[in-house]
Specification:
three-stranded antiparallel sheet; 6% helix
Length: 137
């Protein structure tokens, strides 16, 4: 799993390194062929970059841009929440899924119309979860 966290106007980097082999794992066949043996020995790719580079308020939305070394088409979860909000309290943030393309991602997160979001500060988190990706052929 990869994560990135920032406060709009102040970037903070938090990165948890994860691996992704392109989809869910499947059990190995009992008697693999030569081509299956080669495929089984292939190592999963390792990705280390998931960073928010810009977060700007645009009306009632937060426009977020970032960079990544994830493959094109990778799904990234982007979350907006109150900074220092009690994690045990009911979640009141907003989140969207964006797609990596050409080493970048972008999206607009609706800012909740709640009193807690009137003054900030806010936190933006991005997360890549290998198991949340669609299976690739």
């Amino acid at each position: 799993m990869l994560r990135s966290r920032c406060l709009p106007g102040l970037l903070l980097g938090v990165l948890a390194i994860g691996c992704w082999n392109g989809g869910p794992s499947t059990p190995a066949p009992a008697n693999p062929t030569a081509s299956q043996k080669g495929a089984a020995q292939a190592k999963p790719s390792e990705f280390k970059l998931l960073k928010v580079t810009s977060a700007k308020v645009e009306g009632d939305q937060l426009a977020v841009e970032g960079v990544t070394d994830l493959p094109d088409g990778s799904k990234i979860d982007v979350t907006l929440d109150i900074a220092e909000y009690d994690p045990k309290a009911t979640y009141i943030g907003s989140d969207i899924d964006v797609t990596a393309a050409g080493g970048k991602f972008e999206g607009k997160i609706p800012i909740p119309a709640r009193p807690e979001f009137r003054s900030g500060p806010y936190v933006v988190e991005t997360m890549f979860t290998p198991k949340a990706q669609s299976q690739r052929s």
